[in-house]
Amino acid sequence: MSAWHQVEIKVSARGLRGSIVRTDPIAVVSSVGTAAGGGDTELGRTERLANTTRPAWVTGVRVPAATPGGTLLRVDFYHKEVAPGTSAHLGYASSPLEALTAVDGAQVSAAIVRAGGGGGGGAKAVAHLSASDVYQQMREGRAFELDVELAETVFYGGKTHLFYTLSRAAAGHWVRVAQSERTRLSEFRWGQFDTLKRSFDELGLAGIGLDGTTLLLQVYRYKGIGSHRLVGHIDFSVEQLLKARPGEVGAVTFTPNPMGEVLSADVAVMHGTEYRNVVKLSLKLVNVSWRLKSAEAAAALQPPSQGR
């Protein structure tokens, strides 16, 4: 029996003190009493903030195999604006892992114990937790994981949210099989999508060899409900990425939309591995050049003033 299993944990919080302030709080997930000496083991931290008034995060973590007494999860909430190592502790919530996986993805509510026993007034602080066993279908088939991120880019736009879709080739056309969550480019012009995890059955790839697995990744800019614009696309074979060297640029090509915001970009294959029926791929868009708006272009091309 495996000594661990993989779960995807989703966390949202309501009534968390200070959560309406744009401080980008984080949630840290730990298993209680599993470290040497009976301490807690950090499993992962969820840093994708979806909403400042009702923070929501998602993360994939490795959870130790259940002990005879079960596995107790603890989620601690912190504010990130404080210097590293001294982040303000807002409170914590806890729940048995088995109570979450038993309902497979359904939300389980847990009261948040505020730091210092603080009241803070108003409504009670509540965390909504859910967990799904990512590898529950691994006994019958294979699993697929995809990481996509943007490196630091020269970006001149305002608030920009991106998402991507994944399609597979079938009978001469593309069939969409998955869509990522949206991610927002940070002030450092960097974006990280949540890891996409699917079984080969869900992707319609069961029974197809890697030689015949061709996928299309299309990146879109989200412009509002029901409105989006294609930024560009990458088509690749899984086998092609598995053979690429870590960090290799040029193994696959990013094709920009001629009418989109991106003029050009390169694709770096950060890793491509297949281990114990799990295919893991990681892609990073690098050297991204964004199209300038007319006013921004004029300002960018204006020569710097020189003192006399």
TrEMBL record:
InterPro entries (UniProt xref): C2_dom
Positions of the C2 domain: 11-101
Top-level taxon of the source organism: Eukaryota
One Pfam entry name: C2
Protein name as catalogued: C2 domain-containing protein
